[in-house]
Specification:
Strands 1, 2, 3, 4, 5, 6, 7, 8, 9 and 10 form a 10-stranded mixed beta sheet that branches. It is globular and about 65 Å long. It has 11 helices and 10 strands. The chain is of the alpha/beta class. The chain is 43% helix and 20% strand. The protein has 2 domains: 2-108 and 236-304, D-Maltodextrin-Binding Protein, domain 2; 110-209, D-Maltodextrin-Binding Protein, domain 2 (3-Layer(aba) Sandwich). The chain starts with a helix and ends in a 5-residue tail after the last helix. Belongs to the UPF0065 (bug) family. InterPro entries: BUG, Bug_dom1. This is Tripartite tricarboxylate transporter substrate binding protein.
């Protein structure tokens, strides 16, 4: 039996592999998905067809992939928002990420960065916390929308610091950062790629990043953990999933192929160019990450009081 499984994995793939991308062309998920699918095809002489299936915060594409035959020929690029956050936001989600999909290979993560105006009174995250404790409910922060990981990073900070920053949802990060630079908004939380050029130009001051480690793109900016809240880690991650029930040997082989790609200089450079951090994991470690975030996001979403019909 073991020999038969090994032969199956060796023979796979014998047909084109479909990569479902649950967001429109041009965004971060699309770029990372195409980097992975193109490199898998180029390195292994496979045929990998990338297909965008956007809608409902990525949940439409995830649901489509979850319902595909579990034969190793449909994979999807999931991310934290649609795998660990969406189940607690949407009342009638068409999939259960912990039951209907198999975590295969973690690809990268992107920190959230907390920014303020270059002219702001806030020089450090401690300044923000002290001001918020002195005057609860008076300091607003902008995010790119309700229920995003970026929004929930702000709620997680409220929880660990015992403060009440007031959430102001925007339609995207750009509008929030414009208001911060204009002085009408105290703080914004943003992905690193969205804020990077304004930070480097000196128009925004970066106070902290929310990941466990510092951002390669912002090496001088401390983490929230370094700023006094040990263990704080709220990032958006991206990874490859197969439908539940996919052959174990195919999972192991695909994990190995993706991890090899992540170790190449070209791939590292391409991912860093997107403001993301490449990070390889075993399927077991990636599954543990999903399970942990799935549980922790439940409490954060509940406390934030956000739901999406």
């Amino acid at each position: 039996m073991a020999q038969a499984h090994a032969q199956q994995a060796q023979a796979w793939p014998t047909a084109p592999i479909r990569m479902v991308i649950p967001f429109p062309p041009g965004g971060g998920t699309d770029i990372l998905s195409r980097l992975v699918s193109n490199k898998l095809a180029e390195t292994n002489k496979w045929t990998v067809v990338a297909e965008n299936r956007p809608g409902a915060g990525g949940t439409i594409g995830i649901a489509e992939a979850a319902k595909a035959r579990p034969n190793g020929y449909t994979m999807v690029m999931g991310q934290k928002d649609n795998m660990a956050v969406a189940p607690w936001l949407y009342k009638n989600l068409a999939y259960d990420p912990t039951r209907d999909l198999t975590p295969v290979a973690h690809v990268a993560y992107t920190p959230v960065v907390i920014v303020t105006s270059a002219n702001s009174r806030f020089k450090t995250l401690a300044d923000v916390v002290n001001a918020a404790r002195s005057a609860p409910g008076t300091i607003p922060y902008g995010s790119p929308g309700n229920g995003t990981t970026i929004h929930l990073a702000g709620e997680a900070l409220n929880n660990v610091a015992g403060i009440k920053l007031v959430h102001v949802p925007y339609k995207g990060s750009s509008a929030a950062m414009t208001d911060v630079m204009g002085g009408t908004l105290d703080l914004a939380l943003s992905s690193v790629p969205s804020a990077l050029s304004q930070i480097r130009s000196g128009k925004l001051r970066a106070l902290a990043v929310t990941s466990a480690a510092r951002s390669t793109s912002l090496p001088d900016v401390p983490t929230v953990s370094e700023s006094g809240y040990k263990g704080f880690d709220v990032s958006t991650w991206y990874g490859v999933f197969l439908p539940a029930g996919a052959p174990k040997d195919v999972v192991v082989r695909l994990n190995g192929e993706v991890n090899r790609l992540l170790d190449t200089p070209d791939m590292k450079k391409a991912i860093h160019a997107q403001g993301a951090e490449p990070q390889a994991m075993s399927p077991e470690k990636f599954s543990a990450l999903l399970q942990g975030d799935y549980r922790s996001m439940k409490d954060i979403v509940k406390q934030a009081g956000v739901t999406i019909e």
